[in-house]
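Question:
Now give any protein.
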Amino acid sequence: MRVLRFFGWLSVLIVVAICAALFLGSRLPETHMASVTEVVPASEQKVWGLITDVSAQPTWRTGLKSVTMLPSENGAPCWAETQSSITMPLCADVREEPTKQVVRIADPKLPFGGSWTYLLEPAGENATKVTITEQGTTGPAMWRFVGHYVLGEDGSIKQYLGDLKRTAAQAN
Protein backbone atom coordinates (compact mmCIF):
# COMPACT_ATOMS: atom_id res chain seq x y z
CA MET A 1 0.00 0.00 0.00
CA ARG A 2 2.81 2.41 0.85
CA VAL A 3 4.39 1.83 -2.55
CA LEU A 4 1.14 2.69 -4.33
CA ARG A 5 0.71 5.82 -2.22
CA PHE A 6 4.31 6.84 -3.00
CA PHE A 7 3.80 6.40 -6.75
CA GLY A 8 0.48 8.22 -6.54
CA TRP A 9 2.10 11.24 -4.91
CA LEU A 10 5.05 11.02 -7.29
CA SER A 11 2.63 11.09 -10.26
CA VAL A 12 0.86 14.13 -8.82
CA LEU A 13 4.20 15.87 -8.27
CA ILE A 14 5.28 15.18 -11.86
CA VAL A 15 1.98 16.48 -13.27
CA VAL A 16 2.22 19.63 -11.13
CA ALA A 17 5.85 20.20 -12.25
CA ILE A 18 4.89 19.82 -15.94
CA CYS A 19 1.93 22.18 -15.52
CA ALA A 20 4.13 24.72 -13.73
CA ALA A 21 6.76 24.52 -16.51
CA LEU A 22 4.08 24.96 -19.19
CA PHE A 23 2.57 27.91 -17.31
CA LEU A 24 5.94 29.62 -16.79
CA GLY A 25 6.96 28.93 -20.40
CA SER A 26 3.69 30.36 -21.72
CA ARG A 27 4.41 33.62 -19.84
CA LEU A 28 7.76 34.09 -21.67
CA PRO A 29 7.88 35.95 -25.00
CA GLU A 30 8.32 33.89 -28.16
CA THR A 31 11.25 36.07 -29.21
CA HIS A 32 14.49 36.71 -27.38
CA MET A 33 17.86 38.35 -27.90
CA ALA A 34 21.13 37.23 -26.32
CA SER A 35 24.61 38.57 -26.91
CA VAL A 36 28.01 37.46 -25.58
CA THR A 37 31.46 38.94 -26.22
CA GLU A 38 34.80 37.17 -25.67
CA VAL A 39 38.39 37.90 -26.62
CA VAL A 40 39.83 34.97 -28.57
CA PRO A 41 43.62 34.51 -28.54
CA ALA A 42 44.10 34.46 -32.32
CA SER A 43 44.17 36.80 -35.30
CA GLU A 44 40.97 37.84 -37.07
CA GLN A 45 41.90 35.66 -40.06
CA LYS A 46 42.41 32.59 -37.86
CA VAL A 47 39.12 33.15 -36.00
CA TRP A 48 37.30 33.85 -39.27
CA GLY A 49 38.63 30.58 -40.66
CA LEU A 50 37.41 28.62 -37.63
CA ILE A 51 33.96 30.23 -37.82
CA THR A 52 33.45 29.82 -41.56
CA ASP A 53 35.01 26.36 -42.07
CA VAL A 54 31.83 24.66 -40.93
CA SER A 55 32.81 21.18 -42.14
CA ALA A 56 35.75 21.16 -39.67
CA GLN A 57 33.65 22.29 -36.68
CA PRO A 58 32.68 18.78 -35.46
CA THR A 59 36.36 18.33 -34.54
CA TRP A 60 36.27 21.21 -32.02
CA ARG A 61 32.66 22.06 -31.11
CA THR A 62 31.14 20.34 -28.09
CA GLY A 63 28.06 18.29 -28.98
CA LEU A 64 28.32 18.78 -32.75
CA LYS A 65 28.37 15.31 -34.29
CA SER A 66 28.45 16.13 -38.00
CA VAL A 67 28.00 18.78 -40.67
CA THR A 68 26.50 18.07 -44.09
CA MET A 69 26.81 20.66 -46.83
CA LEU A 70 23.49 21.60 -48.49
CA PRO A 71 22.69 23.40 -51.74
CA SER A 72 23.12 27.15 -51.45
CA GLU A 73 20.12 29.47 -51.17
CA ASN A 74 20.31 32.75 -53.10
CA GLY A 75 24.09 32.36 -53.25
CA ALA A 76 24.42 31.82 -49.48
CA PRO A 77 26.30 28.72 -48.31
CA CYS A 78 24.06 26.28 -46.41
CA TRP A 79 24.72 23.25 -44.24
CA ALA A 80 23.01 21.00 -41.72
CA GLU A 81 24.43 20.54 -38.23
CA THR A 82 23.60 17.31 -36.41
CA GLN A 83 23.73 17.39 -32.64
CA SER A 84 22.54 14.74 -30.21
CA SER A 85 18.91 14.47 -31.30
CA ILE A 86 18.32 17.17 -33.88
CA THR A 87 19.52 18.18 -37.32
CA MET A 88 19.40 21.92 -37.93
CA PRO A 89 19.75 23.39 -41.44
CA LEU A 90 21.59 26.74 -41.51
CA CYS A 91 22.49 29.32 -44.15
CA ALA A 92 25.08 32.11 -43.95
CA ASP A 93 23.09 34.97 -45.48
CA VAL A 94 25.82 37.57 -44.87
CA ARG A 95 29.58 37.04 -45.06
CA GLU A 96 31.79 40.11 -44.94
CA GLU A 97 35.28 38.65 -44.56
CA PRO A 98 36.83 38.82 -41.95
CA THR A 99 34.50 40.85 -39.76
CA LYS A 100 30.84 39.79 -40.03
CA GLN A 101 28.69 36.76 -40.64
CA VAL A 102 24.94 36.31 -40.19
CA VAL A 103 23.65 32.72 -40.02
CA ARG A 104 19.97 31.79 -39.89
CA ILE A 105 18.06 28.60 -39.19
CA ALA A 106 16.75 27.56 -42.60
CA ASP A 107 13.81 25.35 -41.55
CA PRO A 108 10.60 27.17 -40.55
CA LYS A 109 9.07 23.85 -39.38
CA LEU A 110 11.38 23.62 -36.35
CA PRO A 111 9.91 24.66 -32.97
CA PHE A 112 12.58 27.38 -32.80
CA GLY A 113 14.26 29.70 -35.26
CA GLY A 114 16.33 32.80 -35.57
CA SER A 115 19.74 34.06 -36.54
CA TRP A 116 23.21 34.59 -35.12
CA THR A 117 25.36 37.59 -36.00
CA TYR A 118 29.12 37.11 -35.56
CA LEU A 119 31.17 40.31 -35.32
CA LEU A 120 34.97 40.20 -35.21
CA GLU A 121 37.20 43.14 -34.18
CA PRO A 122 40.93 43.37 -33.52
CA ALA A 123 41.72 43.24 -29.79
CA GLY A 124 45.45 43.80 -29.70
CA GLU A 125 48.27 41.74 -31.10
CA ASN A 126 47.10 38.26 -32.09
CA ALA A 127 43.71 38.63 -30.36
CA THR A 128 40.20 39.09 -31.68
CA LYS A 129 37.09 40.38 -29.93
CA VAL A 130 34.18 38.16 -31.00
CA THR A 131 30.58 39.17 -30.34
CA ILE A 132 27.79 36.72 -31.13
CA THR A 133 24.23 38.01 -30.99
CA GLU A 134 21.29 35.64 -31.25
CA GLN A 135 17.88 36.88 -32.37
CA GLY A 136 15.77 33.83 -31.57
CA THR A 137 12.20 32.62 -31.67
CA THR A 138 10.77 29.72 -29.69
CA GLY A 139 7.25 28.47 -30.21
CA PRO A 140 6.08 25.81 -27.73
CA ALA A 141 5.83 26.87 -24.09
CA MET A 142 7.88 23.90 -22.83
CA TRP A 143 10.74 24.80 -25.21
CA ARG A 144 10.61 28.41 -23.95
CA PHE A 145 10.71 27.19 -20.33
CA VAL A 146 13.73 24.94 -20.97
CA GLY A 147 15.51 27.59 -23.07
CA HIS A 148 15.08 30.28 -20.43
CA TYR A 149 15.20 28.50 -17.08
CA VAL A 150 17.34 25.43 -17.81
CA LEU A 151 19.74 26.21 -20.67
CA GLY A 152 19.67 30.01 -20.66
CA GLU A 153 19.18 31.96 -23.88
CA ASP A 154 22.92 32.59 -24.09
CA GLY A 155 23.98 29.04 -23.17
CA SER A 156 24.76 27.86 -26.69
CA ILE A 157 26.65 31.08 -27.47
CA LYS A 158 28.81 30.69 -24.35
CA GLN A 159 29.53 27.05 -25.23
CA TYR A 160 30.47 28.00 -28.82
CA LEU A 161 32.77 30.83 -27.70
CA GLY A 162 34.41 28.62 -25.07
CA ASP A 163 35.10 25.98 -27.73
CA LEU A 164 36.36 28.67 -30.13
CA LYS A 165 38.75 30.12 -27.52
CA ARG A 166 40.11 26.68 -26.60
CA THR A 167 40.64 25.71 -30.25
CA ALA A 168 42.29 29.01 -31.16
CA ALA A 169 44.60 28.80 -28.15
CA GLN A 170 45.67 25.23 -29.06
CA ALA A 171 46.45 26.30 -32.62
CA ASN A 172 48.79 29.08 -31.45
Summary: The chain has one domain: 2-171. The first strand starts at residue 31 and ends at 40.
